[in-house]
Amino acid sequence: MNAALPAFGAAVRFQLGAFRRDPGTLLMLATAPFSAVILLSVTQHSGRPDLAPYALLAPAIMTAMGMAVMEAGETIFRDRAAGVLEALLTTPASLAVVLLGRISAITAVSLVGIAESWLVGALGFGVVVTVAHPLVFAATLLATAFGIAATGVLMASVFVMGRDVRSFQNSVTFPLYLLGGAMVPVTLLPAGLEALSRALFLSWATDLLRDSLAPAPVDAFGWRLAAVLGLGAATAAAGFGVMRALVRRVRHNGTVGFA
Amino acid sequence: MTITGIDPPAVEVSGLTRVFSGGRGKADHRALDAFDLTVTPGEVHGLLGPNGAGKTTLCKILSTVLLPTSGTARVLGLDVVADAKRVRPLLGIVFGGERGLYARMTAGQNLRFWAALYGLGRRAGRARAAELLDRVGLSARADNRVETFSRGMKQRLHLARGMIGDPRVLILDEPTVGMDPVSAHEFRELVEELRAEGRAVLLTTHDMAEAEALCDRVSFIDGGRLLRCEDPRVLGELLSRHERVRATGVPEALADRIAELRGVEAVRRTGPGAILVETDRDGAALPVLRMLVEAGTTDVSTAPPTLEEVYMHLIGDRGMAVRS
């Protein structure tokens, strides 16, 4: 009996239901338009309308990544506090699969942030950013969503270990935004940081997404998409591996139920 | 479903020890100490012990949530450490208390979610959830959020969750805590059904009457060690043999006369004119009651001994010898 597929589907449905039961989990979607306003105000009033696509993409990506990381931590925190984490570990389903399902649903919903940003540009600033290469954009967005969900699983595995997840959540998101090129292209970062950022799927993804918006042909799309997918898969593998190791550790320590 | 022809014991625990680290500068805590236990298929086995005795630690190890420090634990022949993945589909666990359910989901949503974690597809999960809700008497509340349930209703839903994977071994960690008498009675009938289906049930409880009514055998645990493993009829003997009588308004001279009655183990003064009479043989309470009533004492009551008192008798009678 393989529980992976039913568990993944149930976890997706669970999370979609959780949004209805607890809309507070969608709060970051409410803040995304404000971030878009700030960034667009800077680019428009500093005479750099050419940077508008950057200003619209940044809050959308930050929202998606932020929701995945924050909700990954909250999921572990809440399940542990409710005594559900222990029960989850007694089932045939892998905890990592359940979390991947839940975070995939979160990531899918978080992509609404893109529409919000675009609407802010159009309605607030009269800036309409067209997607010059829609297929490249769509394919990259899907690969990016996979990588973000994988990052959520990796983060959740760390949260299994500790009780003070919130300070870690807050600390880890900003470096992810920076090294992932969500705020500024990584080519503009100091050389050492740029090299480091290339180990993250997100840096390849944000570059591709920005290129897909510009009319110029997208260079080496296949290789770059492969980098996004490959690094996303590596992140997922790391997430599953670390989850397995840390779950074993809390079973050893007897701290599964500690809240 | 009747399960027959299973060779290995449902649960087989040998020399099981679990030590929790006390942290810097603090002593370690030995929750289980070379614990042995065997539960046969189709058996309802009671695990009796006070708080902190090691019951929940054993349940957690058997359900693969906790790793033992040493010793072995097997479920239907499979090691709970080395074969944890194969053990999980065979086992259902109901943790004590109210933890372990999603409070903001309905009863039906909870069960369907847990069904999927046991590999059931949507249709099968829906059918299984409906069947179990009916079985635990919660069909009418299937669409209500768990947070609106009474404690007893949550316990019943816990039971349904524990059975969602159709387990051959069910671990119930104090399942009747918070249940009203009617629900507790229905729960006992449910356990009887599980036994009739050939499932093994390991039931931890503080309630000796419950253990006596339900269990094929009972094990006493304290300090992480097995004190005794007995037929529950022995419990009944202990309960009647060690019956206690409480009375107030008892003159000193009358208390002294009661102390000399045959079968009276001790007469304790619990307050001005108040006594607690402990007996150590079947029927010994009757002459005590008669003497009190004839002396005009009207505030008299009898009660079975507490679990702790039975332990004291057990340890006093047999020492710490382990039986299995």
Summarize the structure.
With 259 residues, chain A is mostly helical. Chain A has helices at residues 4-21, 27-45, 52-81, 84-89, 95-110, 112-125, 134-161, 165-179, 191-197, 201-213, 221-253. With 324 residues, chain B is α/β, with parallel strands linked by helices.
Description:
The complex is a heterodimer of chains A (259) and B (324). With 259 residues, chain A is mainly alpha-helical. Chain A has one domain (4-253). Helices cover 77% and strands 0% of the residues of chain A. In chain A, helix 2 runs antiparallel to helix 3. Chain A is globular. Chain B folds into two domains: 11-237, P-loop containing nucleotide triphosphate hydrolases (Rossmann fold); 243-303, ACT domain (Alpha-Beta Plaits, 2-Layer Sandwich), CATH 3.30.70. Chain B is an alpha/beta fold and 324 residues long. Helix content of chain B is 35%, strand content 26%. In chain B, strand 12 (264-271) and strand 13 (274-279) form a beta hairpin. In chain B, strands 6-7-8-3-9-10 form a six-stranded mixed β-sheet, with helices on both faces. In chain B, helix 3 (107-117) crosses helix 4 and helix 7 runs antiparallel to helix 8 (232-241). Chain B has helices at 55-62, 84-87, 107-117, 122-135, 151-162, 181-196, 208-214, 232-241, 252-259, 285-294, 307-318, and strands spanning 11-20, 29-39, 44-48, 70-75, 78-79, 91-94, 169-173, 200-205, 217-222, 225-230, 244-247, 264-271, 274-279, 300-303. The interface between A and B is large, with 33 and 39 residues.
From the structure above, extract its key features:
heterodimer, A: 259 residues, mainly alpha, 0% strand, B: 324 residues, alpha/beta, Rossmann fold, Alpha-Beta Plaits, 2 domains, six-stranded mixed sheet, four-stranded antiparallel sheet, 14 strands, 26% strand
